[in-house]
Amino acid sequence: MSWRVKILRSLLLVFFVFSLSACEHQTQSLKDDQSIKKVDDTDYKKIDSKFHNDDNLWKYISNRYSLSGYDHPSIKGHILWFQKNPDYLTRVTNRAKPYLHYVVQKVEQAGLPMEIALLPIVESAYYPFAFSGGAASGLWQFIPSTGRLYGLKEDWWHDDRRDFMLSTNAAIAYYKNLKTLFDGDMHLAIAAYNGGPGRVQRAIKRNQKMKRKTDFWSLKLPSETKGYVPRLLAIAELIKNPEKYGQKITYVKNEPYISTIKLRSQIDLALVSEFTGLTIEEIYKLNTGLKRWATPGANYELVLPIDKIKVFEEKLKKYPKNKRISWVRYQVKSGDNLISLAKRHNTSVESIRAINNLSDNKIVVDKYLLIPQSLRNIKDYAFTDDKLGFSGKKVNKHIKKLHTVEEGDSLWSISRTYDVSMKDIIRWNRLNSKKHLQIGTELKIFIERVDELNVTALQKVIPDLNKSITYKVKKGDNLSLIAKKFNTSIEDIVRDNKIDIKKPLKIGKKLKIIVNILSSDE
Fold first, then answer.
1. Residues 204, 111: one domain?
2. pLDDT value, residue 498
3. Cβ atoms of residues 170 and 56 within 8 Å
4. Residue that terminates a domain, selected from 323, 348, 380
5. Which of 438, 455, 472 is the last residue of a domain?
6. Residue 140 falls within a domain, yes or no?
7. Among 33-37, 192-196, 392-396, which range has the highest average pLDDT?
8. CATH no. for residue 65?
9. Whole-number percent of the chain with pLDDT over 90
10. Does residue 339 contact residue 419 with C-beta atoms inside 8 Å?
């Protein structure tokens, strides 16, 4: 194939690719043809028989290398670093145990070089909770924009980029596209994963103009990208010949270790721990996308060791859905707002709003809210975002609203309505804080974006808010007074007790009253 044809082919693919990278802040338009979906456990169990030829999974990997360039001089310097730090690969290969079999399976199914399964060593040291200064996260270090293009979403409860299954699927899809873009040259594809395909394409174009070679080793690239491929090849060489270089590779058995079970409702990780005998830390290390003390809403696929699936299923079936999350009935006090309440109870504004059917962030003093709460002390949940230091991440999750000033409005009242500060309102609208607001003025308000939640699924796990009580009629009582006392209706009392409204209530008569635990003062 001539270089002109190659350029033409690249130009066609540019419609799908524009200078993106999983490791850097670059605009990305490359998208796989297939959407990335949660992995079904049946898919994971479909293991080809040839996958078990080698008992040691690292041996299985190294016996299937297909990249070239292992004799390139630039690899030696990287190997020397590992020789000076002999414990590093021991720790990293041990850390890879829960994830390696799944990653290898996906690489093999995609027809990619087996060395790709070693790239998480380069990217994150096989630590799914790794978070870089450039906002890259997870085993494969996806940045938010690249992750979104590959179907990786993030909300208050879960980050798909940290989910080792979902992020692996996305990385494989990305590499398949890069392989196509660079005509099967995996050295260029791997470099593009680090530095962005646009950057690699520009380097190729420069060399073409100067009539130079356009292979990876001949390109002028940033030092990080230039060292990325040699470092991967050095690791691959060390994995294949550990004794030669004084390395100790942690043994990983070549067999499936984990499976998944689809949950129909949210559950506290403390209960998962109780049902399985696993520690909460062990649960986080398998369910690496979890950011809080509980799973997200319905249809989350919980990852567990294969030998724990059956016992978990049996115990889960016997456990009521509305008790899988602990709830607190909270009476709103003066000065409360949803943001402060969510922080205090380690939950999200979105969850409180959905559970209590709130259309906005307004809450009323003395009214009751139902708030989800962790079963154990929050300190026991070692891998929440707060514990990992992610809570301070600045992510643009705000939407613009316009507020028209009405009679009686003030900066204070508006700030309370939208849960924002008066200083922000002044800054957004360039107001003079010493002047009164003019009626009819439109103010820009930027409020926290509310991610869509499956409200129907949430309602299924909320405990029954209605309880039946027995009330004995006292002297002076009438239906109106009793209905007001329990915040119910006369019609409901009449219906539930089959009362003849034409006859007076008898003192001492026992009435069945259905009380809403949130709205009643009882």
1. yes
2. 86
3. no
4. 323
5. 455
6. yes
7. 192-196
8. 1.10.530.10
9. 40
10. yes
User: What are the pLDDT digits (tens) for 258-278?
Assistant: 999 999 888 889 999 999 999
Q: Could you tell me which residue, 412 or 397, shows the higher pLDDT? A: 412
Q: Is residue 40 part of a domain?
A: no
Residues of the domain holding 351 = 326-388
Instruction: State both tokens at 237.
Output: 């060489």
> What are residue 154's DSSP bridge partners?
159
Q: What is the DSSP letter of 376?
A: S
Q: Within 13 Å of residue 107, how many CA atoms lie on the same side as its CB?
A: 21
- Residue type at 155? D
Tokens at residue 158, please? 């879960």
Q: What is the pTM of this model?
A: 0.66
Per-residue DSSP letters for 235-291?
HHHHHH-TGGGT--PPP-BSS--EEEEE-SS--BHHHHHHHH---HHHHHHHSTTB-
Tokens linked to 223: 């030092």
Mean pLDDT in residue range 417-438:
79
CATH of the domain at 309: 3.10.350
State the Cα–Cα distance between residues 211 and 55, nearest whole angstrom: 48
Q: Which two tokens stand for residue 453?
A: 């939640």
CA 428 – CA 441 distance, rounded (Å): 14
Task: Tell me the three state secondary structure of residue 120.
Answer: helix
Report the first-to-last Cα separation within the chain, whole angstroms: 82
Q: Would you please indicate which residues are annotated as catalytic (active-site) residues?
A: 123
Total of domains in the chain: 5
Domain co-membership, 115 together with 187: yes
Report phi then psi at 283, rounded to 5.
-65, -45
Phi, psi of 68 (to 5 degrees): -105, 175
Question: If you search the block for the tokens 């995609």, which residue do you land on?
Answer: 110
Q: At 401, phi and psi to the nearest 5?
A: -130, 150
Alpha-carbon distance of 179 to 110, in angstroms, equals: 11
> Are 104 and 122 in the same domain?
yes
**Angle (nearest 5°) at CA 53 between 245 and 307:** 100
Contacts of 68 (CB under 8 A, 6+ apart): 187
Neighbours of 111 (CB within 10 A): 9
Q: Is the dihedral of CA 243, 245, 251, 253 positive or negative?
A: negative
Residues 6+ apart with CB under 8 A from 418: 361, 401, 403, 445, 447
Task: Examine the domain organization and report whether 18 and 155 are in the same domain.
Answer: yes
For residues 152 and 202, membership in a common domain is answered with: yes
Q: Diameter of the chain by CA atoms?
A: 104
Residue 98 resides in a domain: yes
Q: Domain of 371: which CATH number?
A: 3.10.350.10
* Same domain, residue pair 319 and 334: no
Residue 522 placed within a domain: no
Residue 237 sits in the same domain as residue 375: no
pLDDT at 393: 42
C-alpha span between 217 and 73 (Å, rounded): 11
Query: Which 3 state secondary structure label does DSSP give 411?
Result: helix
Whether 55 and 195 map to the same domain: the answer is yes
